[in-house]
Design goal:
The complex is a heterodimer of chains A (313) and B (86). Chain A has eleven helices and nine strands. Chain A is an alpha/beta fold and 313 residues long. Chain B has a single domain, classed as ACP-like (Non-ribosomal Peptide Synthetase Peptidyl Carrier Protein, Chain A, Orthogonal Bundle), CATH 1.10.1200. Chain B contains four helices and no strands. Classes of the chains: A alpha/beta (313), B mainly alpha (86).
Chain lengths: 313, 86
Amino acid sequence: MAEQLNKESSPAFGNNLGFWFFHTFIRLGGPLPAYLLLIFILPYYLLIRKSARRSASYYLKHRFPKYGSLRRFFATYYHFLQFGKVLIDQACMGILERDRFQVKFPYKEELIRITGQKKGMVLLTTHAGNWMTAMATMDKMEVPVNLLLNVENSDGRHFFDLSKRRDEFKFISPNGFMGGLVEATNVLNSGEILSIMGDRTEGARAIYLDFLGEKAPFPVAPYHLAYVTGADIVVLLTARTGKLSFSIEAHCITEGVDREKLSREETIKMLASNYVTLLEKYTSEHPFMWYNFFNFWDEGENNLKEITAHVKN
Amino acid sequence: MSLENELKELIIKDLKLVDITPEEIKDDDFLFGDEGIGLDSLDAVELVVLLQKHYQVETKDLEESREVFTSVKTLADYVRSKTGAA
């Protein structure tokens, strides 16, 4: 069960009863009582739930390779604390009034400009910070926002359900026809926004790139879609900057890449490398906001389909 | 050239397939999966764009797409039904 949850979302954090307690605390007293409750619950995950500790260790040992076991133990505690606060903030975003939040998003005008070109936009998100923050600000975009996401297995379901805002987004299931990519192609061709997580391959075709000192697989699909449809790719990275306070960065990684002159493989590699460079910078600046809790450095080689298969340079 | 043969050539060219010629693809061969010519979901992305680019045909109905993307024959039939091509 824990392994399954590791693959699907967070490392077995919480169950329905636990979520009910947190949501009730938030409704009654705002985020502070929920943060307080978190402090009492964390030792359970840290001391008893070995699977949760192991899930965090994959990232921490890459991010802090020189840490001994004691420092890593405290790093794990702090990592869990930050993640717990982010989950509480996500629930707060669904439950509390919007004016309680502070979101710094200086790049929003740029996003509106790019979508205005009507050539489609891949919004590349990551299991880091609070990507729901970014989704919460997407409602004012002038084009529809589609998410290639199995929302039922995502931490994001709490935000979408609590805020009753599922209807504002269209969810494309990665378990659907052709992994949802036919639908994804159509929405990009219609000039719409397609949000994809850039740090999970889910067994699909991948490209291996150095990330925090070791090769890790990244999904090819976002870059392939952009190459074929001519859409732009914007990487969204969010960070928690305080109580109910967030900042959002957006980086257009297709800008300046001459796709006419590069082959498909060269384009995919360049764009994926641009994404990984941004991730390394992000984890350097926000070391405890990476919440991809599974060992994707060691994702089964058997699942990897070489990008060159069937493809001629 | 028949529409089927034209599609085979376009598939090989646009999807950059190697180790396969148009003659080796039968009209009824499955396009996807191990039993056919082995295309995958990323190749489906290229097929959607191929149909739009060369025939101005869209594949927005997913149930219909399941049928259409079965083989070269089903692709050709779909293009004919949308464009009246011979």
